Amino acid sequence: MAATPRGTSPVPPDVRPRLTVLSGPSGVGKSTVVAHMRKEHPEVWLSVSATTRKPRPGEQHGVHYFFVSDEEMDKLIANGELLEWAEFAGNRYGTPRAAVQERLENGEPVLLEIDLQGARLVRESMPEAQLVFLAPPSWEELVRRLTGRGTEPPEVIERRLEAAKTELAAEPEFDTTLVNTSVEDVARELLALVDVV
Ligand SMILES: Nc1nc2c(ncn2[C@@H]2O[C@H](COP(=O)(O)OP(=O)(O)O)[C@@H](O)[C@H]2O)c(=O)[nH]1
Ligand SMILES: Nc1ncnc2c1ncn2[C@@H]1O[C@H](COP(=O)(O)OP(=O)(O)O)[C@@H](O)[C@H]1O
């Protein structure tokens, strides 16, 4: 057995990153890919964020998001209850800290689906986190998906596409890029990265 060089620590038994961040522009397919993966692998734990955005038809409180008022969001932030938070296209979004911490302390994998600003904050506070970028096959396809989803009025779509330009330019900051051409393929690749055993 090779000796451990002096001055370095032995490699810990499990060096796999437990925290995975999935980011990518609005409409690229993050929710679709994660939902597809969790349909077959419900054991993959996804953090449920708090948001001041209004629910879309079909979105459930506590499942897709915790839908909160501006005042409630102020309190969550002031009380330090969010691991990170950001303003995106006119609404605030944040990751509740306690549930994530509990899982990480138990050595369980955690998946966050958050925006670029949030991904950068996580990288600062947890450098061991792995950052995964979901990219569209092309700009035209991103516009098509965001428009085709039909959940936002044109001015909100414009705002999100403006943000998408900044987000696409930040792709090199991420550890891995997955191009969302096929939902099935990307869901499989993401599952391997999240490494749920
Ligand atoms: N920083 C941060 N971003 C979040 C959080 N939850 C969701 N987001 C991001 O906020 C952005 C807008 O989310 P949403 O309004 O659901 O739109 P969608 O991504 O187009 O479905 C997306 O980039 C989400 O990944 C969070 O807790 N923190
Ligand atoms: N690989 C794909 N091919 C074609 N359409 C897709 C694909 N992935 C997602 N979509 C569609 O694109 C739209 C945006 O997907 P969504 O998951 O809501 O994106 P995000 O969560 O990143 O905002 C939805 O209408 C969804 O059905």
From TrEMBL:
The reactions it catalyses are: GMP + ATP = GDP + ADP
Limits of the Guanylate kinase-like domain: 17-195
- Which Pfam families does the UniProt entry name for this protein? Guanylate_kin
- Superkingdom of the source species: Bacteria
| Record-listed E.C. numbers | 2.7.4.8
Where does the chain bind ATP? 24-31
Gene3D superfamilies recorded for this chain?
Answer: Guanylate Kinase phosphate binding domain (3.30.63.10), P-loop containing nucleotide triphosphate hydrolases (3.40.50.300)
Q: Region labeled Disordered — which residues?
A: 1-30
Annotated function: Essential for recycling GMP and indirectly, cGMP.
Q: Could you identify this protein by its name?
A: Guanylate kinase
- The organism named in the record is Streptomyces qaidamensis
